[in-house]
Amino acid sequence: MKELQKLTGTYQATGRGFGFLIPEEGEDCFIPPRAQGSAWNGDKVSAVITEEDPATGRRTARVTGVLERANKTVIGVLEKHDRALWLKPDSQRLPGLIQVATKRRNLRVGERAAVSMTSFGGDRHPPVGTLRETFGPADQRESAVAAILYGNDIHRDFPPEVMEQTRSIPQFVQTAALEGRLDLRDKTIITIDGATSKDFDDAVSLEKDDHGRWVLGVHIADVSHYVQPGTPLDLEAYERGTSVYFADQVVPMLPEALSNGICSLNPQVDRLALSCILTLDREGAVADHRIAKTVIRSAERMTYGDCNKLLAGEDPALAVKYDHILPMLQDMAALARVLEERRRRRGGLDLETQESQVVCDDQGEPVAVLLRRQGESEKLIEAFMLAANECVAEHLARAGKPCVYRVHEKPSTEKTDALRTLVAPLGYDLKTADGPGLQKLLDWAKGKPEEGAVSMMVLRSLMKARYDGENLGHFGLAAPYYCHFTSPIRRYPDLMVHRILTALLDGKWNREGKRLTAAVPRAALQSSQRELAAQQAEREIEKRYLAEYMSHQLGEKFTGAITGVTRFGLFVMVAGGVEGLLPAEALPGGPWEYDEARLTLQGPNGRYALGMELEVECAAADPVSGQIDFILPGGVPVPARKPKQEERSRPPRRKEGKGRGRSMHVPKRRKGGRKR
Q: Cα–Cα distance between 21 and 637 in angstroms, integer?
């Protein structure tokens, strides 16, 4: 008897009875109905190959065991059946109902809640979870947002010990802190941020030296002076890893008294900084650099909007108001263009992604959705921050000191081959998938209807950027050295880089170097994990705000472009970057055949492909799930789909049978306490 091939990987459920195994190596495998065993979506499982098609290479597998559970906490809606309390999971990918164990009284059916799984059930027993948290009525957007934050281990409130330490920190720069610092308070230094920003990490200055070279100052808030290793503030910052931004709100990494107060580079007040001062030639090459502990005084708190108007010469009154910094701003814009062109010549990608900006009223309700586009001042700040980040990373690498690098590896052959297949029907032959080759593709699509789709396809073909203690380079920027140095108020890896630099500048490396070196890999891993959680939360929450906004646009018509093609329909992006689903059933003239290789839907009388422009009508928008549905103008909305597994709405029937030492610089995860 032929021995079955064994695999390990992640089980990915579809909510439609079947699923897929995403193996650690090789192609995905199809898991047919009733072959998933006791696996739930996201579980790490063992499996065996049961069938393989020689012609296509497609494999079918059966799950043989669960190695690691992914769904330790499940969020859903409370229901009552036969006087027992049950949780119906929000995710259609999770099976059945979960019996809720709790001693709490006065719980309301219809509330969104979270349970901690104690048993995943079996043939004779239902899954069981212990009630951990409730978030309010399930039919409200606020409860969905609160649940998303909780599910991603993101907490608005800070522990008492953190707030106690925060209150002990003075809100002014003390004289003793100035000792040994380079005094730059006589320099013209400004911040440029969004109009609603309150946490100012970075400030910039620009002048010329005696040789006519640019002297660019990138001055970053010295958070490491206030957040000392091993303190409650440090423990909490490490656990959070990053600030989380959505709509008109922020869940900060540091308490407001630091993030918006003493650490923030507010105008007209003294602030401690860590400055990277670069001397650049006419081509933007770094001729010299200096990294120093400094004290600065920001001359102006500028906004992107005002700077863009100043640089475009659109507002004479604004030009008069800021005539003392306008020449420096114009020089900054010129230098930024030189730096950008230099980066492009070496193979960096100019990947413009479309991001939605949700505008809320005083009550926090979404009233408008805008497409966030980079103006000249946004590009200026980005160019300067990239220059400083590269300089610091190279400085530490050449000094032989550790660093939390920001790495971005080359895309895999499989991904670039898939991209080549996808863009071929659009008329583009992707000969090389290196930086210049991908940039040629992006330039080719610019200004065309498929520009957004091509940009998204290129983005999906790339590896995910992450943090690492090893310098692996940054493919997207074509940078041999890169780290994050410029945002320590909102990112823990930046704070770690500051600590390493400070130990060197203060001459304390012999005393602290060993601990810092050991801390780097843990900080890199933790920061990468928390960044992914924050991105997922921000993305899911934004969907809810966009859906709430679109719920007031029902029946309105929009012009959009196809950004995704699936077997079950088309994803269409309309004005403001709002994306919704146009179900295949709502397309006239079917049946429609899905071409997975070319990402098209082909019918007897037409074809839908990536990048095609469409006029659509908003048919439905659900602020709780974040789902937006489109139809063609004058079309008939598709009825809401009910789960095929009716048992999701009923508790399972019982079958007859038996009854039922921490580092100074990077803390380890706390034991006990609140959920992390």
A: 34
